[in-house]
């Protein structure tokens, strides 16, 4: 029996994701919080700038959690929770409530889900762009 191995998300990966997302946000003149979760949904790294709105930390964490739980960018899930959408009746009795606002993106390596990044503090479209930009650093 053969086993397929893959590299999990490391703290170094998480720090690189955070640095890249923050740099993209700073270039856009936006102050954000960034959360990185491992594949089990555990907090791997977090950064909130002192100038960021306090709730942005919880927002970034919930965006990352949602992207991880549903293995999809939260930007792609917004319509699914509207009345008549696929997830309209999705229960939120998970460890923490899901948050369907753009800015959460799953992180994959070798085709496997290894974690997620969430960005909060800017407009949802900006947060999504910052999170997506961060993924390019792991290539």
UniProtKB/TrEMBL annotation:
Matches recorded under InterPro entries: GlcG_carb_metab_protein, PduO/GlcC-like, PduO/GlcC-like_sf
Pfam families reported in the protein's UniProt record: HbpS-like (PF03928)
Name of the molecule in the record: Heme-binding protein
Superkingdom classification of source: Bacteria
